[in-house]
Amino acid sequence: MYPTHLEEPATTCFPKSRGRSIQCLACVPAALATCIVCLAAVEPARGECVPARADGPRLALSRSDTVLFREDFEHANTQGWVLHSPGSNASDGMWEIGDPVGTITDDAFQVPSQPEDPYEGAGCAFTGQNAGGHAGGGDVDGGVTYMLSPAFDLTGQSDVTLTYARWFFNRDVGLDPEDFFSVEISNDDGATWTTVEYLGSNDNANYWSTCGFSLDGLMNFTPTMRLRFGAADGRDYDYNLIEGAVDDITVSAVWPYGTGDFDDDGDVDLCDFGRFQECYADPLAVDCEAGNMAGDETIGPEDAEAIVNALTGPRQP
To answer: pLDDT at position 45, please?
Structure first.
């Protein structure tokens, strides 16, 4: 199987547009100059992408996270993604969902262009199935192809994080300024877009990388949020080779920790404890956020221990 994971960080580069040093990573084999990629195009969102290792951990949520939107592409397109959405103009290599046929572009060095396997499981989203494993067939040609998510609701949420695994192959690094891979988010059902991550014509990342970005501060959260993933072959040069893939997309928020102070009087007393007991006994009870002191979305024994330890006031329930 050809290599799709990275060795140790190789060098440091200084993108002129940002004026700061960014760690670069070199893909296996490290001697291939076209495999060096700077993981720098992550602004304005706060976050990072790191290479996924074959024996490394998978993307995971902490116990205090609540999932607001999730797509692992294991069940075809059951959620209703638009695979060549408005704004797309590519003539080939449109997004598909399934199990990609892996391709390579250099027999001597076994340079991967399309992933042989999804990041995890049996399915992912990718740009154009390359039947027969021919790298030049089914790649993105003649423009951009966008994949649009279904709408999801982030109303009232905070500490929201977007995570995903992505792959971007750009054989002809620096040749066409219109080559790119992008991740965007919209809060108005796709009318306008804000960039989360952008890899341009000088980038190549032909391996699975896991990415995580904070969405707080990018925009107001609404009931009509959407994600859009794009891969583009610029039209200045006709024979560029561009491939993209995405897997394991999750939008999550940290479940707020309760204070135990149900009546907002500045202390945690027996009156609050009595209200906590009602929430503990009835899973369907409402207005129980103050009792969620363990921050794990449910009221349970850990919350009971926490509120007992927090008792300060003398009032009786």
So the answer is: 62
